[in-house]
Amino acid sequence: MPTITFLGHAGAAVRASAFRLLADPWLTSAGAFLGAWHQYPRNDHLDVAGLADADWVAVSHEHLDHFDPWFIDRLPRRTRILIPRYPGPAFRERMAAAAGSRQVIEIPAWERFPLDNRGSWITVIPELSPMCHDAAFLIVADGRSMLHCNDARLTAAQARRAKHLAGGRLDLMALQTAGASWHPICYEYPAAEMAEVSMAKRVSKLRSVQRLVRQAAPELAVPFAGPPCFLDAEVGRLNWVLDREDGAFIDPDMATDWLREHLPGQRWDHFRPGDALDLDTGEVTRDPVSAAFSFDDSFREGYLRKYAEDRAGAIAGVLAEFPEPRPGLHDRFAAHFEYLGGLSDYFLGRIDMVVRFEITGPNGGVWDVDISPDGVKVGDAAPGTRPHYRITTAGRWVEGVLDGRIAWEDLLISFRLSLYRDPDVYNDHLVGLLKHANAPALQAVEAYETGRDESERIVVESDGVSYDIPRYCPHAGEDLSVGAVVRDGQVHCLAHNFAFDLSTGRCVNARSAGLASRRVR
């Protein structure tokens, strides 16, 4: 009986004998992240009213391509909303504001939550590190199971545990294969370097999926959750990322082809908005509207032109909600960062850099934020100061962050900014401070990072030399025995693409704790 209807992006509708559940439905015509992201392919032909008539809606995290307040507002009052329990309050508070009088239920990690009185249930599986508030859903409906990974980068151990909880069988495993982050596409790289970094991240993501699926061995594995497209003038230039040959994102069709080639014993398929899969019989019903869509490069230009015309009004409505900032932007900006500076001494010590903000438009300026163990200082940019990060964006977006209408991460993921860093090393704690911006979440990260046990170790070999290293990545806990590759004297963790020099243990591409590596012969 259980049927999965794919809604586009990471959305799925589960129809069981006694209930209907939606997972991460993103259906608004206004897109997401300041109107920058839009569903690709479009899914506005789906019956929104019919989909909204659900018993349960499960939303994995607060990213607006998963958490759609517009759709939440259209749910019946009887619909109950399920979210993971995270260390900080941000997602819970945002969902409560969107849900109104509807019941919002937080599910603790790995705790089975019943969906009916016939044995169906759901649980949440968050990423190991609380730095990332992302979680997968394991759904068991009428005896069939779906591991809906969303954006969560699960470890092999987590995937195997999920399979065990589901009775030793995963009928469907849906995984993100097109990680859509602001790096590298918003960075000021030369064209050749941009292409090289983009392809490296694309392949790393596919390898990560390949290894996770090999460990879980589901009956059917499905690439999904992206990529988006960009429809308005400010970000439309970024659609190069969809190029099939050398774009930064990979579409589900190409991902499926790559994964079939590299893991041929596994059954793979991909689906478009409105496609339905019967988990009992395996029968697939293809949506006739989506069937006319193609990811081919030759199809894209005309498709996106018409799509942009159709959504121009909705996008204009979003942009109108963010007028130019009023006078005093600098003072509000400085007060905001002084508040952030009081949240966690641990994060200040891990950041320890100058971040330059170039705020364009009325009442903007060029301001340096000096973050150090001694605190945070904000002032006009000094000519002799060399910032580690430079972030350029419009004052209208910064004003939205300062008054609480959007979060820093919403702005970062909107791609309505540009970034530069020197040296070109990622600082996870800077991003973590901005995106969490609350003490409980930051305290959870500190407890996780300072309480790790490195006693379990493995031996890896590079260029004929063996190294004894911790089994688990010091960044976010990925099992390096199955979730890493070793090349050129470095171990590359596939979960978040962090690389560590085996001879020194130093992380070479991010500000991270080192890997306690020892040469053994």
Automatic annotation (TrEMBL):
InterPro entries per the UniProt record, alphabetical = RibonucZ/Hydroxyglut_hydro, Rieske_2Fe-2S, Rieske_2Fe-2S_sf, UPF0173_UPF0282_UlaG_hydrolase
Domain named Rieske: residues: 442-521
Kindly give the PROSITE patterns that the UniProt entry links to this protein.
RIESKE (PS51296)
Q: Which organism is it from?
A: Actinomadura rugatobispora
Which UniProt keyword terms apply here?
Answer: 2Fe-2S, Iron, Iron-sulfur, Metal-binding
Query: SUPFAM superfamilies in the record, alphabetically?
Result: ISP domain (SSF50022), Metallo-hydrolase/oxidoreductase (SSF56281)
Q: Which Pfam families match?
A: Rieske
Write the protein's name. Rieske 2Fe-2S domain-containing protein
